[in-house]
Amino acid sequence: MMNENNENNEILTEGVTETPETSETPETPSSEPVAAKKERVGFLPTIHLTKRDGVPYWEAVLVRAIAILASLIVCAIITVVVTHDNPLSIYATIFKGAFGKGRGFVTLHEIAILLCVSLAVTPAFRMHFWNIGAEGQTLIGGLATALIMFSFHEKMSVGALAVLMLVAGVVAGAVWGVIPAIFKAQWNTNETLFTLMMNYVAIQLVEFFLKVADKSGSNVVGPRLLGDGLPNLFGVQYLLNIVVVAFLTIILYIYLRYSKHGYEISVVGESENTARYIGINVKKVVIRTMILSGALCGLAGFLIVGGASHSINRDIVGGRGFTAIMVSWLAKFNPLMMILTTLLLVFMGRGADEVSTVFGLNKSFSDIITGIILFFIIGCEFFIRYRVHIDRPEAKGKEEN
What we know:
By secondary structure, the protein is mainly alpha-helical. It has helices at about 1-15, 35-40, 55-85, 85-100, 105-125, 135-150, 160-185, 190-215, 225, 240-260, 260-270, 270-275, 280-310, 320-330, 335-360, 365-385, 395-400, and strands at about 45-50, 385-390.
């Protein structure tokens, strides 16, 4: 029996290689302590971020002010390197370019138009409807205004023509804004792509009008065919546009902050499910808000064509529809704060153009300066939203010991 058992054991163990006693059984990764892992790979995070629950108003203003100051210093350094001139003279040139003799109202008008487009996209953005089509909505409003001017400037009184131009511009912008809103509300289409693509449709419609209205092949239809547009207020050019936008800013601030519609926009932006739970018709709010957004863009187009340039071409909006997105976002969708943001961007843009002209620099230099300022302004929002923590060196030493 003993021999039989020994033979069976030999059969069972045949082909099995014994592990020497000195060999260590490898541990599974999950059984290794976290601290041992960090020590083994030499890893210890020295910087980490935490999201701020809330930032005092004064602290947020201070961070933004420091960012603007830092951007101006960087711009001065770059400009000095390029021009080899005194930084003070450079800043004097920037100020002269924005508010020099005969330029004050032009700058204020640029601020007013950009502010108008920024106000237009704000209701949609507060609702988290990403309206990237402000450029096209403004352009189509300007096109409708130009069509009325082209057809009736010799047949109607100035007052009646102004009213008809206003209605045409606002309605055209509203229609251009409500189309993607309907598709979003009914079929949940992507509003970003939809509104963006409609910009190109608006551009092609303007191109078609230019070819029909002016057989000479010109890329601009000007006052010769459109007439003089809106009269000057108190004989001051651009004053009417500035007053209209100032009044609109106050009205929209009250609308968004204190009206029922403004409250519904905020709730839908926070959570559509919550909005439905408390009885808000989300589809109705989306469509209504985009009608408002498009109408305000159409108003901006009316002011550009009828109240300023008295002409129409494919580039007349000048990228304001996209710049307005930054203005609205940086101002936290607050119409009053947008005044300061718009002022800064227009001031630096016009000043940089003047620097380019005076010092004989490439026109792209102004875009570089504006880009640097935007980089600092946008970047400072990171420090407002997050707190940066740096681990103390002694903490690392203690863990290693």
